[in-house]
Amino acid sequence: MLLDWQFILIFAAIAVVFPGVPILIARFIRPSKPNPIKQQTYECGIETVGASWIQFKVQYYIFALIFVVFDLEAVFLFPIAAALNQLALFAVFEVILFVLVLAVGLAYAWRRGALEWF
To answer: In order of start, what are the domains of the chain with their CATH numbers?
Structure first.
């Protein structure tokens, strides 16, 4: 029984060692010369004016997440639309369920006002 799991344990150990060793080596051999210029906030080559930590409206992030969800919907629906005549009836119902779940999410976001800018 233990022999069945030893491959997973070896794989997990390798998964920790491969990224961990180069990070530790780099930490010891890198030059470390901190100064005030290196500690400044970098903003696209432009010097920051005022406080660099400001709050953004959460609505922008929610709008971006809604965009990503419906962008992924399009990515999943194009191949299905291309092969629709070759799909089984069960697959068609799964696609309809997928679109309905996304429609419910859109209706919820719309009702909560996530799509309103002002």
So the answer is: 2-112 (1.20.58)
pTM for the model: 0.48
Torsions phi, psi for 32 (to 5 deg): -125, 100
Least Cα distance to 77 among 104, 93, 99, 105 occurs for 99
pLDDT in tens, 4-60: 788 889 999 999 999 999 999 999 999 888 888 787 776 676 666 777 677 777 777
Retrieve residue 43's tokens: 């903003």
Token representation of residue 30: 């890198």
Report the sign of the C-alpha dihedral through residues 10, 14, 15, 20, in that order: positive
Q: Which two tokens stand for residue 22?
A: 């180069």
